[in-house]
Design brief:
By secondary structure, the protein is mostly helical. Among the domains are: 48-107, no CATH class; 127-178, no CATH class. 83% of the residues lie in helices and 0% in strands. The protein has helices at 2-38, 42-55, 59-72, 75-88, 93-105, 109-122, 129-139, 143-156, 161-177.
Length: 178
């Protein structure tokens, strides 16, 4: 009986060691991508994250890839990766928001609004969701709805300088018209 326990313990130690080695090396790839990103080497970071996500489906990595592509202005690539990520993580609110942002930049405002509404159904306090929705309403010429969304954004993030500036800009525009 003692020999069996010893064999089991040794096997367990080997298994745990292999498990640790496997996951710590994968983590290093992700962290290497993070370091490259922080150094402004976005394309290289994206390549590291893409190699990581092939073996490790992780919503956070999809989010990083999508955001990297958005920052690079590669909206089609960003959209493709967001959609792929959503096939594995359909409830990932960050990926849905990123897809809304991509559609906003592509001037697909109706789809962007639908996606933002979905984000807000999942998390009504999601940062910048009301701001983005306000921008869309402003572009569409519905200033009252835009103002309401900007106020909602300030209720969530009262320190948001861009939202305060946007409300002030709208107020000044209304004063000029009157």
């Amino acid at each position: 009986m003692r020999g069996k326990n010893r064999f089991f313990i040794i096997g367990l130690i080997i298994l745990l060691t292999l498990f640790y080695i496997k996951f710590s090396s994968k983590n290093k790839i992700e962290k290497k991508g993070d370091i490259l990103f922080s150094q402004g080497k976005i394309e290289e970071a994206i390549e590291f994250w893409k190699s990581y996500v092939k073996e490790n489906r992780d919503s956070k990595i999809y989010e990083k890839i999508v955001m990297g592509y958005i920052l690079e202005g590669k909206l089609d690539d960003a959209e493709n990766w967001a959609k792929e990520g959503l096939t594995y993580f359909p409830g990932c609110v960050n990926l849905i928001y990123n897809l809304a942002l991509i559609n906003f930049y592509k001037k697909n405002y109706e789809l962007s609004l639908e996606l933002i509404d979905r984000v807000l159904e999942m998390n009504r306090y999601f940062p910048n969701a009301h701001y983005l929705k306000g921008l869309i309403f402003e572009i569409k010429g519905d200033i009252e709805k835009a103002k309401r969304e900007f106020v909602e954004d300030l209720n969530i993030t009262p320190w948001s300088r861009k939202t305060w500036e946007k409300l002030q800009e709208i107020e000044e525009g209304e004063n000029e018209r009157n």
